[in-house]
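This section describes the prediction task in plain terms. A model, or a person checking by hand, is given the sequence of a single protein chain and must write out its three-dimensional structure as a string of tokens. No templates, partner chains or ligands are provided. The sample shown here is typical of the held-out split.
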Amino acid sequence: MAYTCTQCGHRTAKWLGRCPGCGEWGTLEESSGTGTAIKTKAKPAPAGQKASPITEVDATLAQSRPTGVSEFDRVLGGGLVPGAVILLAGEPGVGKSTLLLDVCARAARTGSRVLYVTGEESAGQVRLRAERIGALEENLLLAAQTDLGIVLGMLDTEKPDVLVIDSVQTLSSSDVDGVPGGVTQVREVAAGVIRAAKDHGIPTVLVGHITKDGTVAGPRLLEHLVDVVCQFEGDRHSRLRMLRASKNRFGPTDEVGCFDMTEAGIHSLADPSGLFLSRSRIAAPGTCLTVTQEGRRPMTVEVQALVDSSSNGPGRRTVTGLDSGRVAMMIAVLSKLIGLGSHDVFVATVGGVRIAEPASDLAIALALASAASDRKLYSRLVAIGEISLSGEIRPVPDMELRLAEAARQGITNGVVARGALENIRTPEGMRLKECDTVQEVIELLLGSPESAPEKAG
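The expected answer:
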């Protein structure tokens, strides 16, 4: 008898309150196994399973097939690959089941036979959701089952073209000990499902729970076994949902899929930039636009700031949708120019989008300077650039792509770092100003009117 950690899989001969491997408390569970090494004897390969030259391997067997959900296919690299196993993880209630039910329905409409296995909800609950989002299809088979053996048996009887298991932590195998969701059970279930998916050539999607720190629950081995690991993210107070791939054997890992979650279901967003801009066309103090990148997709985002004098000691700092560390750095840089140390500062993005890249530094600094001086910037002004601790503005990658997205949104004025426009094609009709420091930009836009660039249009 041994004890296995449910977080990291560390094994020990006796029970301990704290796992020696990962340091978590109360995660050691009893499991079978003596840990004795077993010697495997060599044996000849079966007929048809011998090694062959790589030039003779049929590459068409690994070609992706579109699912009909454009943003889902974008992240996967084109669609589902026969025999591929995808792990989709996300917080409870973010919309994982709704997304997969929509994917299953669209695949069923094209003639594919889809098996949806639910271990968390009853068949009636899934049916009600399918009615609400319009996912009722004859080729969509539904099974409320938690036994791995029965699920594997359904693959032989139903012969589906696509398999979805919601979720891997709810399935269990009678061949091994342990509770459903434990390390031993998750390892056995994942191995069984992956083996069946490869043998039958069935693209399979596994829904995974996540822990409080955002990692996939269960052994880390689960992420190594599957072909694709996706994270479904979103704020409960926002309709925007984002799908990211942290591992993808069939495509890139820098693509991001955007979805709009509504009462009628979930829909792909080919152009999500409109969600992150305010509807008002009138310029207001404390607002500035920037173009951030999610993967390879540029998105125009509005940054808003409010600066108010504080009467109770040190100023308060509240940040929403931005990296609080970078905002604090921008406040420190600006404090030497306009003095923000004793003020309350509030900085946020529009639409609930989260920005982490340094390209938004210049927009944050301009929004803060505009709010502190109570002076407006140009209407629909975009600022793109990273700011150093000395106040120097640095160029950022993919400037041509960012400026093209800004021009597509009707933006005609922009401020960038010195040298950022070299060897790139700038949008026609867009007036751009290159600056070296934050102080130069503030004097240009918030100083005397004579020093400001001519307004386009």
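For orientation: The two ends are 78 Å apart (CA to CA).
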